[in-house]
C-alpha cells in the first residue's frame, strides 16, 4: 500500500534522481582519473558527467575553479530538485541544507567576532547553505546584535536556542559552537525522520534513521579522536555528542571518558561493524593509528 | 723604458724612492692577503652553492608533500578552512631569529627557525571531521617553512658572498695589474733619473778636472819657457834672477 500513491508526489523527482545517479562517476572513471597527468586530462575525464559546467573553463584551469564548477553542478541540480519537491520531501531537502548553513553561520560569526567586513565573507559561503536572510547577518556589527536580532530569524534559530547564549558566542571557541549546532541539527533531523507523521514508518524513515545514526556515531568518535591533545575538557566534549545513534548511550558514555585510542576502541567494541574497522586499522598502533583512524571516519 | 710606462707623478729623489719601495712592499703583502681571502670566500661560495642546490631539491620534495596534505585536509574537512585558520591564529608559532657569521671578515646573516611550544591556536579546527589532517598538514607545512628559512639564509649568504667576492677580486686585480706595475715603473724611473744625475755629475767633475789640468799644463809650459828666457838673461846679468823665497805673492792653487 505504501507505494501506491508514491508517484503522486515523488514520481517526477525520483525519475530525475535516477537520471542523476546514472551520471555519477563509476569505478572505471576513478581508475582513469588516477592515470591523469595534467588538469586538462582530468577535465576530459569529467566531461561526460560535468561537460556543460566545465565547458566555460579556459584550458588548463586552476584546481579551485574546477572544483567550483563541479560544485555549481551539484548546487544547480539540488536546487532543481528542491524546487520540484513538495510536502515532507521539501522539508527533508531543507534539512539537508542545514549542515551547510551551520558552516556558513559559523563563518559569519567568526567574521563578526574579528570585526571583519562580513560582506566579503558571503562569497566564501557554501552556496547550498545559502538562505534568504543570510545577507542580513552582515548587518550586525557586534555579537550581541547578531544573536538577538539576526540569528533568531534564521532557520537555525532553534539550534541556538537553549544551548548557546550570546555570551557563549563571544567566549567559546567557534569550533565548539559549530559542533554544538551540528549536534542539535542531527538530533532535530533524526526526530524529523522518525516522528514526522508523513515519514514515520516509511522506508525513508528506516533508511535515514540508520544513516543519521551512523553519522552521529561517526561524529562522536571523530570528536573524541580529534580532541586528544587539545584543551577541550571531557565535560565539554560530552556535550558535543549527539544523543542518539548506535553507540548511544553506553558507547557515548565510554567515549566521553576515553583518554586515548584504546579507550575509543573499547567504547566502540559494543558495535560489531565499528569494532572490525578499529581492528583493521587501529592495531597498527602508535600515533599513525590515530591519523589512519581519523581518515577512516572522515 | 722608465719614462714610457704609467707612473706616479713624483720627483725623482732618494726619499721618494724609499717611499715607493715601501709602497711596493705593502702592495705585494696586500695582494697576497687579498688573494687568500678571495680564495677562502670562493671556497665558501662553492659550498653554499652546493647546499643551495640540496636545499632546493629538498624544498621541492617537502612542498609536494605539504601540498598533498593540504589537499587531504580539503577533502577531509570538506571545504575551505583557510579563513577559519587565519582568524583563529593569533600568535606566531614558528619564529625566525637572525645571527651573524663571520667568514674572513664578511658578515653573513643566518636565519634560524624555532617553534614556540604549546602555542596551538587552532587545535580545535576540524573537530567534527578532519582535525587530525589539519594538525598533520600544519606539521608538514611547518617543515616546509623550515626548509624555506634554511634556503633563505643560504640565498642571502649567496648574494652577499657574490658581491664581496667581486669586490675582493677587483681589488686583487687592481693591485696586481695596476698598482704594482705602476709602482715598479715609478721605481725604475726614479732609479734611472738618479743614475742619469750621477752620470752628469761624474761627467761634470771630469770636465772640471780636465780644464784644470789643461790650465795647469799651459801655465807650466809658460813658466818653463819664461825660465828658459831668463836663464839666458841671467847668464848675462844674474841680479835679474827671481828670488823664490822673496817677498812675493804666490798664486792660489785652485783645484
Automatic annotation (TrEMBL), chain A:
Alphabetized InterPro entries for the sequence: ATPase_csu/dsu_sf (IPR036079), ATPase_V0-cplx_csu/dsu (IPR002843), ATPase_V0-cplx_dsu (IPR016727)
Pfam family, one: vATP-synt_AC39
Source organism, top-level taxon: Eukaryota
Alphabetical list of PANTHER family matching this protein: VACUOLAR ATP SYNTHASE SUBUNIT AC39
UniProt-recorded name of the protein: V-type proton ATPase subunit
UniProtKB/TrEMBL annotation, chain B:
Transport among keywords: yes
Keywords from the UniProt entry: Ion transport, Transport
Keyword Isomerase: no
Residue spans of biased composition, Basic and acidic residues class: 212-235
Domain of life: Eukaryota
Region: Disordered, residue numbers: 212-255
InterPro entries, per the entry: V_ATPase_D
Stretches assigned to coiled coil: none
Family assignment from sequence similarity: Belongs to the V-ATPase D subunit family.
Matches recorded under NCBIfam families: V_ATPase_subD
Protein name: V-type proton ATPase subunit D
UniProt organism field: Lepraria finkii
Taxonomic placement: Eukaryota, Fungi, Dikarya, Ascomycota, Pezizomycotina
Amino acid at each position: 500500500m505504501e507505494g501506491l500513491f508514491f508517484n503522486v508526489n515523488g514520481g517526477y523527482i525520483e525519475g530525475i534522481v535516477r537520471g542523476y545517479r546514472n551520471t555519477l562517476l563509476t569505478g572505471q572513471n576513478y581508475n582513469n582519473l588516477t592515470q591523469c597527468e595534467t588538469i586538462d586530462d582530468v577535465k576530459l575525464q569529467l566531461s561526460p558527467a560535468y561537460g556543460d559546467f566545465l565547458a566555460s573553463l579556459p584550458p588548463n584551469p586552476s584546481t579551485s575553479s574546477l572544483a567550483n564548477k563541479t560544485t555549481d553542478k551539484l548546487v544547480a541540480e539540488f536546487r532543481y530538485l528542491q524546487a520540484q519537491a513538495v510536502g515532507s520531501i521539501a522539508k527533508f531537502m531543507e534539512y539537508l541544507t542545514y549542515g551547510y548553513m551551520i558552516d556558513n553561520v559559523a563563518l559569519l560569526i567568526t567574521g563578526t567576532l574579528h570585526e571583519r567586513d562580513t560582506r566579503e565573507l558571503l562569497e566564501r559561503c557554501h552556496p547550498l547553505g545559502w538562505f534568504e536572510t543570510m545577507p542580513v547577518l552582515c548587518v550586525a556589527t557586534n555579537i550581541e546584535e547578531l544573536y538577538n536580532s539576526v540569528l533568531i530569524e534564521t532557520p537555525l534559530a532553534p539550534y541556538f536556542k537553549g544551548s548557546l547564549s550570546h555570551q557563549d558566542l563571544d567566549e567559546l571557541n567557534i569550533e565548539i559552537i559549530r559542533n554544538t549546532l551540528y549536534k542539535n541539527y542531527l538530533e532535530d533531523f533524526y526526530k524529523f525522520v522518525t516522528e514526522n507523521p508523513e515519514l514515520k514508518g516509511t522506508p525513508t524513515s528506516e533508511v535515514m534513521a540508520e544513516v543519521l545514526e551512523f553519522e552521529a556515531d561517526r561524529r562522536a568518535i571523530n570528536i573524541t579522536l580529534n580532541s586528544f591533545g587539545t584543551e577541550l575538557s571531557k565535560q565539554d566534549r560530552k556535550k558535543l555528542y549527539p544523543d542518539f545513534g548506535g553507540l548511544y548511550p553506553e558507547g557515548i558514555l565510554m567515549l566521553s571518558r576515553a583518554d586515548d585510542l584504546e579507550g575509543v576502541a573499547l567504547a566502540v567494541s559494543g558495535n560489531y561493524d565499528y569494532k572490525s574497522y578499529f581492528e583493521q586499522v587501529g592495531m597498527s598502533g602508535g600515533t599513525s593509528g590515530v591519523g589512519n583512524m581519523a581518515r577512516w571516519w572522515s | 723604458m722608465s719614462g714610457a710606462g704609467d707612473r706616479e707623478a713624483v720627483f725623482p729623489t732618494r726619499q721618494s724612492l724609499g717611499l715607493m719601495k715601501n709602497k711596493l712592499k705593502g702592495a705585494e703583502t696586500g695582494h697576497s692577503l687579498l688573494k687568500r681571502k678571495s680564495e677562502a670566500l670562493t671556497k665558501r661560495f662553492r659550498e653554499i652553492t652546493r647546499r643551495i642546490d640540496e636545499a632546493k631539491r629538498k624544498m621541492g620534495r617537502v612542498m609536494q608533500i605539504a601540498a598533498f596534505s593540504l589537499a587531504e585536509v580539503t577533502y577531509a574537512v570538506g571545504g575551505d578552512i583557510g579563513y577559519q585558520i587565519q582568524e583563529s591564529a593569533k600568535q606566531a608559532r614558528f619564529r625566525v631569529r637572525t645571527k651573524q657569521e663571520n667568514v674572513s671578515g664578511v658578515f653573513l646573516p643566518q636565519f634560524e627557525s624555532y617553534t614556540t611550544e604549546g602555542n596551538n591556536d587552532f587545535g580545535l579546527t576540524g573537530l567534527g571531521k578532519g582535525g587530525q589532517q589539519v594538525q598533520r598538514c600544519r606539521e608538514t607545512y611547518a617543515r616546509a617553512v623550515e626548509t624555506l628559512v634554511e634556503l633563505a639564509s643560504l640565498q642571502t649568504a649567496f648574494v652577499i658572498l657574490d658581491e664581496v667576492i667581486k669586490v675582493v677580486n677587483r681589488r686583487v686585480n687592481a693591485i696586481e695589474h695596476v698598482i704594482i706595475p705602476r709602482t715598479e715603473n715609478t721605481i725604475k724611473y726614479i732609479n734611472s733619473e738618479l743614475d742619469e744625475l750621477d752620470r752628469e755629475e761624474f761627467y761634470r767633475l771630469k770636465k772640471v778636472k780636465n780644464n784644470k789640468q789643461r790650465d795647469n799644463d799651459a801655465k807650466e809650459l809658460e813658466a818653463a819657457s819664461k825660465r828658459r828666457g831668463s836663464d839666458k838673461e841671467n847668464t848675462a846679468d844674474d841680479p835679474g834672477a827671481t828670488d823664490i823665497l822673496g817677498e812675493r805673492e804666490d798664486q792660489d792653487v785652485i783645484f
